[in-house]
User: Fold these one by one.
Assistant:
Number 1:
Amino acid sequence: MLRDEFAKFEAFCFDLDGVVWEYRKILPGVCNAIQVLKSMGKSVYFVSNNSFFTKAEITNSLVTRGIQADINNVFNISYCAALYLSKHLTPGAKILSLGLSGVSDELANAGFDVIRGESMHELEVEEFEDLENMKVENVEAVVVGENPSFNYYMMCYATLALNSGAKFIGTDPDRVEKAGKFLVPSTGCIIAALETATNRKCTVLGKPNTYMLDMILDRDGIDNSRCVMFGDKMETDILMAKRAQISKVLMLTGVETRESAKGHAFEPDYIFETMNDLLVTQPN
């Protein structure tokens, strides 16, 4: 049974990594909570900065793990970045994708001619003379996504494309991701390197930008007061919710702790240990 203070909400938005799952292992209480919400006729959305996978792949991963997910309510940043560029570039435009296949595939699905960063993972710059022979195609946009295999060759290629006037788009500004007990560098670090190299500012579409959330609210006609966001990062999930003026729940199943959450000028409305906190415990 849903806690009384959440009954007023119509739309429940969930981050994925650190909230719904960790390494695709569903976190405690998630399946039951979403099942309860669905049974009450609530709208459930998944709003993620994860650019590793396509919208369809994420939906399939959720469904196969017992999560009731509607592909039309999955808003991952790879898909949304492709939508954004569809409104700003002509069909067939050449785009350099510095993410993994999730970004490249969504851009290709949108009709763009994609130079895949995955094809550059094995390329190296051994000496500066190699750069003189680097031929950069007429790229109209560079899209930076999370990429553990990002290398110096890719940085140089992207820098040349950006200095030639390509649009500079980032999927998300996440500085770190949780990897077991550790926090490791993420997309924001790649963006920062390219911003330094080009002296240009990247247009970052993912949280805390409200772009994905605005798409949900506008498409489905949802009032801000009837929407709540569940996230594990203060500087992305919770800040986005604050900017969009919706309610915000910080989950301690991911990056943040109660102590780290205090180091910000804004606060979540609720802090949950697990998703079980969304429901009322029934007496024995």
Note: The longest helix spans residues 152-163.
Number 2:
Amino acid sequence: MEEQPELTLDQLDALTAEVNVHAGPGSPGWVGETSHTQRFTAAVIDAFRTNDGIVPGELASMGGADRHPPWYYNVAANPVCTVEWQGETFTARAVIHSGVERDRLFAGVVRIMPVFGEYETRTDRVMPVVEFIRLQDA
């Protein structure tokens, strides 16, 4: 098994650089090796599950990169997803907010985690706000 990277700001910067140059699966020249993004994501998932839903360090919105993080494109294309939250796993629908509602929700996030406001100052893109709404069991 490949070594998973530490969850540090340097690793987040490396992930951001990879996304900005479109490296990884689906990019031109991709030959099938595990990308930094995949290793980083595996480390985040492992930390999340090991620490009861808490991931050490600051992880958010690609640190203000010029592109949205890969997970954003995944939920935009496939809004029905599996969510793990507080020891529970369930199906949810991702709702990407925009306009006034997005701004209101983002302001609330920044109050709780000011680093998101800092990230937003580093980019011209509008940082996404995604709400995951639990789907009722069928």
Note: The helical segments are 9-20, 36-50, 70-77, 99-112, 115-121.
Number 3:
Amino acid sequence: MKRQDIPTAAWASRRAFGKGLGAALLGALVAPPAFALDETLLAPEIRAIKQRGKLVVGLTSFDSPPFYYQRKKSGGDGGAALDGFDIQLAREIARSLEVELVFNRQAEDFNKVVELVMTGQVDLATSKLSLTVKRAIGVLFSRPTIELRHALLANRISLARSADGRPPQEVINRHFVGSIGVIADSSFVDIARQLFSSADIRQLKNWEAVVDAVNMGDVDIAYRDELEIKRIMHLRPELHLNVRSVLISDERDLISVAMRYQSEQLANLVNVILLKRKKLDANQLLDEYADIFATA
């Protein structure tokens, strides 16, 4: 229909409708979202983080690949940046809160990371922290981020001497009386004491020291999780000469995010994020961060 065929009043009405519709569409594009958070109504810990503009996350002073470590950037510039399973989770939490992400790496061991949480020096910790009853007394844990089986490195000579022809499972059990090396101030100190109550539990400075001790025969067994056992056996193939790996099928290491006991809404946010994340096992995690095998 041409313009001249429409009565003047009808044409004016149509023009008015068109202008109104255009204005409405433009308003929909530039208007703020219908749901805007009133920060005064937020839980205290969430409000404090948003007002500060930063989420402070605790990590140990040392790296723990593939959870957090200096990962080489792609592109050939030779640089590296902090990355890993726990780092990606921390970034996702910070994005959800729309704040900057800051890391506190003052803690020299895993228990000191928990202390950073308890004293409020960090908002949360994603430092490959094992969920334990002892730690749960002081902090609030999220649902597990990943479950890892426990594992051992056994010195072949010590194991053969103790076995005296018997299968390894008849020697390495809850009645084991030899020496077991663990990382000092880690969750495995208490777990080893509970599982191997008759053994001599020896705390060493770090994982490298524990591995060297079992390789040299200074301890009979090194105790940690399956991921760390697989990684070290891959990085140090010479270990196969002196040690063998043993999985503990009925024990799990539950890795979780730690928060202050008052931070219930922050824990709820973390749990929602974890529910939506892809679930990985140890092998899948190692595949995703395969570059750690090139880092001694």
Note: The mean pLDDT is 87.
Number 4:
Amino acid sequence: MIDFFDPDALSPALKELGYVDVVVDFTALHGFHVLDIVKELVSKVGHYIFISCSNVYYFDKTQTEHKLQDKKIDSPDEEKTVDLQVKYGNDLLLAQGKLSAENYLLDVHDKHNFPVTILRLPDVVGPYDNKGKHLGIQIALQQKQSVGTKTKQNMFSLVYAKDVIRAINETIKEKEKTFGKILNIAGDETLTIEEYIEEVAKILNVRPTRDNKKTAYLPSIYTGALDNSQAKRILQKWSPTPMTTWLPEVVEWYNDVDNQKYTAEILQRSLRQAKDLQEEKGGPQIM
């Protein structure tokens, strides 16, 4: 097992690789992570797919209440970052790191034709979700507890986990059309947390109790709804599954106690790893 965040271990392993058709990078959190990888893979990778996060839109100066367009976002100046830190707190750290990685990769593409595609995701819901956001709502409803509706963002997007897999597969097939592109991989629905709770409650056949003083499980990304039209145009065989189709499948999957336990354990492990990384690095900083 190679520690992705240890350049002394990663670099020799990458040097030993021959030509690689596709790299799908879910793990890199910052520009200095992808820098180490690109140095070794720049001449021997056919396609580098970077999985980013829609919270990079925190830094979009043109952000409005409309669906967010997938475009390059400039790194913020220090004054802007301080203002956003007040609004978003520690959640800004991931946004900073992912944006620095995006911009480094796009710069290498522009200068050296590095074959990169960036996929920006909102909150992901589905089996094996490692954030447990849906799980928290479902358990609260099943146990007849109140469900929080307090959030910094009224309207938001979700994406079904299996649609992310399908989008990656189509990105690989359509690679020549996607090089240097940023694609929002999101569902077509624009939701409020109240609407989402209501839909889950209908499937469970329970009456929800809402609490507008308790923090909502969703969204965990406070940027709003995403425009997925470019992804659907370029990835011609990809379109998101309607929520009316996937949500009952997710609820049924989490009706299994073992699946609930699995997600809860993964969530705790992810939180520990994120905390350890932040303490080790002092938190990501813009390059």
Note: The longest strand covers residues 209-215.
